[in-house]
Amino acid sequence: METELRTLTARLLAHRSIPRSDALARRALVDDSFRHALDNRLASVGLQLLDNPYAAHIAVGLAEDMREPVFGQGREYAASNVGLTRDELAWLMVIWALIVLPKRERQVNRRSLHDDGQNDMFGAETPVEHGETVSGALSEASLAADFGNRLGGKTKLNFALGKLARLGFIERRGGQVLEGPLLDVLLDYRILADRVIHGTLADVLAEAGHRLPAANAFEQAQAAQADEDGEE
Predict the structure, then answer these.
(1) Angle between helices 153-167 and 86-108 (to 10 degrees)
(2) Per-residue pLDDT of the chain (232 residues; tens, 9 = 90+)
(3) Is 17 helix (H, G, I), strand (E, B) or coil?
(4) What is the CA angle 134-180-13, rounded to 5?
(5) What are the φ and ψ backbone dihedral angles of 31, each rounded to 5 degrees?
(6) Cα-flanking dihedrals φ and ψ of residue 145, to 5°?
(7) From CA 168, how far away is CA 161, in angstroms rounded?
């Protein structure tokens, strides 16, 4: 087990994220003794494993008690500990809301992007899906048209998207923005979803013609994620 622990820890640190379908990632998620040993190893250097059952990847991050000692001396920590400006953080939140919130609604209802809910009588019994079967894409041109006037225009959007892609939050393909490996694992749905759906950003998105899940769908997703977290 020692070799597997060293390998998984090194890979997490080197690559920042690992697909949950990876053999060692799966072992960390289903083998209690292996997970306990991994948690202890990460905790010894101020880190913790980041995972939620709806994210396609696992990652590592600072333990909560280490955030202030590590980042607290930098002035930028109040906004971001990955060097994002306020405008870039705003673009990140818009993209997160437009990709992750609808994705979570599909995952909870066990539906794919092209499923109207009538094809599978036993959909609730199927495993949670990850990846592009449930995670939609956004047009860069549409993002610029819908939100550019509020967030600095096409030039700032292009710069922000490049930065978000380098950080692993998104992927860019042929003018489309897709979910990156860290978008759903680093940003906590349980905290952010309520603030988005019941906050000012919901009004901004609605003005641009984007539908967010209804409050009852959000509550269902919260309860489902709590159940999934307890089972895994």
Answers:
(1) 60
(2) 899 999 999 999 999 999 999 999 999 999 999 999 999 999 999 999 999 889 999 999 989 898 888 877 665 555 556 778 888 999 999 999 999 998 988 888 777 666 645 555 445 556 677 767 788 899 999 999 999 988 888 889 999 999 999 999 999 999 999 999 999 999 988 888 888 888 888 888 888 888 877 655 556 666 666 665 555 5
(3) strand
(4) 130
(5) -100, 105
(6) -70, -40
(7) 11
Please say whether the beta carbons of 188 and 194 come within 8 A.
no
DSSP 24: H
Distance CA 104, CA 167 (A): 22
- Please say whether the beta carbons of 87 and 66 come within 8 A: no
Q: Give the tokens for residue 9.
A: 């820890």
- Asked whether the beta carbons of 52 and 229 are under 8 A apart, the reply is yes
Q: What is the pTM of this model?
A: 0.82
Q: What letter does residue 210 receive in the DSSP assignment?
A: P
Q: Which residue has the tokens 């880190």?
A: 47
Q: How many CB atoms lie within 10 A of CB 33?
A: 8
Mention every residue, 6+ apart, whose C-beta is less than 8 A from residue 147: 91, 94, 157, 204, 208
* 3-state secondary structure (DSSP) of residue 130: coil
Torsion angle of C-alpha atoms 223, 225, 229, 232, degrees rounded to 10: 120
List the alpha helices (DSSP H) in 65-119. 67-71, 86-108
- Residue labelled with tokens 């939140």: 93
Segment (H or E) for 204: helix 200-207
